Amino acid sequence: MTWVSMAWLFVLFLCIADSSSLFLPDSKELRQLLSRYEGEMDQNSTGNAASNRTRRAIRWSDREEILQLHNKLRGGVYPTASNMEYMVWDDELERSATHWSEQCQWDHGPEDLLMSIGQNLAVHWGRYRSPAFHVQAWYDEVKDYTYPYPHECNPWCPDRCSGPMCTHYTQLVWATTNRVGCAVHICPRMNVWGEIWENSVYLVCNYSPKGNWIGEAPYQPGRSCSQCPPSYGGGCRNNLCYRGEQSHMDMNEVEKPQVPLPPRTTARPAPKPKPTTPKKPNIKCETRLRDKCKGLTCNRYNCPANCMNKKGKVWGTLFYDVQSSICRTAIHFGAINNNGGLVDVTRMEKLPFFVRATKNGIDSLSKYKPSNAFVVARVEETNADCYTTGAEVCPFKKPNTRCPRLFCPGNCKSQPSYWSPVIGNNIYADSSSICKAAVHAGVISGDGGFVDVLPLDKRKNYVGVLKNGIQSESKSNTEGGSFRVFAVRQ
User: Fold this and answer.
1) Residues spanned by CATH 2.170.130.20 within the chain?
2) Hey, what's the signal peptide range on this chain (predicted)?
3) Is the CATH number 3.40.33.10 carried by domain 56-241?
4) 389/392 Cα distance (integer angstroms)
5) pTM here?
6) Residue range 199-214, pLDDT digits in tens
């Protein structure tokens, strides 16, 4: 096998690596998959020429998902692109992709067309994969690509691909490529490197103008839209050069969906059960807040059992003096009982006095002297999945927001970025997947685990960084807040 063949094998592996089941020749799942793309073939095959013109090799929903994902990924490249053009759908490219996909050949083609277009291919069999899954796999080659800055291009830019292949990524983000057309075809028998795959799903995407010119960088770095071609008239949309009323010359009569597309096309996996091993206390019954909490926002503590009859003193009710025992205060307030448990502590401003009360078996004391204060709260624990975002669980609200302790499942690292985005580094946009951000930050491993989340106000800019096998996104002026994630030491 040649080096090129091995590289293609690796790319194909990216697309099918975590398929957990295979379709049987006459399975219910296979019939559903076939009907997804071929359901209208029978009714159209008996119609006239006009009805045949309405047939497409790709569903409208898949077409829109592919196009939206292309533009989202192109607008989020790092370093920022100054000349990245908005991409539109092209029916001629779709027709050429349809013709080639129907040949069921696992190779680029046809040769006479490849001189003028770019082309990305993907194939899979097994459980259903949306076309956007493969688009994301092409983009994820970015982890092996190092952008060649202008000073390195003298005059030709060096090839900075450290992996088997980066050309799918570079074609997808080639700045001057502004049209795409794709097709999906079910191949009854397809020869993939000497093996016959039955009922394989073949995706072909054609691009124009073509990219991947040797010795050139895929785009020019700089402020977004600062070097757009004059034909765009200064228009800019989501970091892309934009003409305003973009048109993709749709000459086929295809019924448009009347409802928004769902954010995902497959079901969420069931989260792994939380471990039941007891957690070790990280403070003693007598530990005072003054000894542990130095900043405005304090940490989360795990109190031991049997603190009710210990010696730690408590001053106040509802609002407590910082010299109070954290755990006995939590029992007094009702955040935990004598069995111990997790408690959230938040530092407050100085109060003029504190009043006593007997609650939950603990007598607090009065203090008529100004002192710094704190409050406590119960901590909930809940399961998250790889798609749970900060905005869903605990969006930032002033003056402070308390979040549950989350248990993340394993395998979030492998989830596509368009389902589980990670935006930023250390501080993440609250539209990010919490669990995948935790892996990116090194708070948990790929096997999952508990994390604590601290909601923060929004940031103006987020910078994408490749860490722990995950490439985060760069974004500016996003809506919503942000968050940080912290490790939980069991």
Assistant:
1) 289-378, 381-487
2) 1-21
3) yes
4) 5
5) 0.47
6) 899 999 999 999 999 8
